[in-house]
Structure formats: C-alpha cells, structure tokens
Design a protein that fits this description.
The chain has about 210 residues and is an alpha/beta fold. The protein is built from 6 helices and 13 strands. The relative contact order is 0.18.
Length: about 210
C-alpha cells in the first residue's frame, strides 16, 4: 500500500489557510498556489538520491552532493494542475513538463482522456503528477493509468488538499504511487466537493466562477 505524506510545515499551513478563504481574490489565490507548490516541491523531492561530487570554490576544493542523475517530469492534470507548475519549476528548472487532460463522461461517469503529451523518455523519469484537489480520485487514477500505459513507472501524486475517498481510490488502483498533500480533509459532500476544501480550484485560479 502506498504512503500518504501530509506536510505540516508552518509556511505551507499558513498559505493554505489563505488559499481556503472564500474572500481571497483570484490574483492572490494564484500566487499562493504557486508559492505553496514550490514549498511542497522541496518536501516531495527530499528522498531523491544524491551522489558525491568534488567542486572547486574560489577558496578551495569542496566535497558536495548533487542529485544523482535524476530526470524529473512534472505532469499537471488540466486545468487546475497548471497553477502548480511554475512553483515547481522554480526549484527544479531542468524538469520536463507534460500535460494530461481528463473529463468525466456524463453518461458513463468514467474519466476520458482528451489530451496527453508526455516527455519522450517518460519511462526514465521520476514523475510528479500535480492536481490541487484529490476528491473522488477518478481523475488521478485515470491520469496515472495513462502515464503507466506510456511507460511511466516512478510516479508521485502531489495535491494541496485530499479527501479520504480520493486517497482510498488512488491507493486501491495504484498501491505503488505515494501521495503528498498539504492537508487531508474530512470528506466529500453530495456534490463531490471536498469539505471544508477550498471550492473549485480551477475556477478560483482562472477567475471563471
């Protein structure tokens, strides 16, 4: 079974409280999602392997460390996942960025892929899948399916807020995918929104309420 990591860093929790607030405007919401994603990038990558390297400072030689050949891919789920990309890239500027678009068929209620563009060497990369909200888990499970079908294997899922229902769905379908969140909320309501959540992340990011 995969693990769930909840980040309790004070900066992450402070910013998340403002993100949740219904009175936070679109500009500030977007900036805070960006900043929180950058802070979470620090946490989600902390167990990636490093290797020793000798460099020369202006004063002397020094034994240092660098990430050991890690190739990273950042994959946002459209559209809300786009709001998390720039913050991640600030810390991992050499990462390649793919995109996955998923919608729910109104008749079957099953997720349908409408767009998927991934780095050609996706099977060689450590993959961080981004979506602000993990609600029912349907989109995340489908996106992971699409990535695995194209050869991706080492996948981490990163969300601002997750509901227990979504976590359970991802763990059942993909027990090899660890989940990284800033908060785990109580439940879903009858409309499938996370409670207390933050509303519709995509609408709040892009001002389409």
């Amino acid at each position: 079974m995969s693990e769930v990591f909840v980040f309790d860093h004070p900066l992450i929790q402070h910013k998340l409280s403002i993100i949740r607030d219904k009175n936070t405007g679109c500009k500030e919401f977007r900036e805070l999602v960006d900043e929180t994603s950058m802070l979470m990038a620090y946490e989600v990558t902390k167990d990636m392997l490093t290797e020793p390297i000798e460099i020369e400072t202006p004063v002397a030689k020094a034994n240092c460390y660098r990430m050991s050949g890690s190739k990273i891919a950042i994959i946002p789920i459209l559209r809300a996942g786009l709001g998390m990309v720039d913050g991640m890239l600030r810390l991992i500027p050499n990462a390649k960025v793919g995109h996955i678009g998923v919608y729910r068929d109104p008749e079957t209620l099953k997720p349908v892929e409408y767009y998927c563009k991934l780095p050609q060497d996706i099977e060689e990369r450590d993959i961080i899948l981004l979506d602000p909200m993990l609600a029912t888990g349907g989109s995340a499970v489908a996106a992971i399916n699409f990535i695995k079908a194209r050869g991706g294997r080492n996948i981490r899922l990163m969300n601002l807020i997750a509901a227990p229902e979504g976590i359970k769905a991802v763990q059942a379908a993909h027990p090899d995918v660890n989940i990284y969140v800033a908060a785990q909320d109580a439940c879903l309501n009858e409309h499938g929104y996370i409670v207390p959540g933050l509303g519709d992340a995509g609408d709040r990011l892009f001002g389409t309420k």
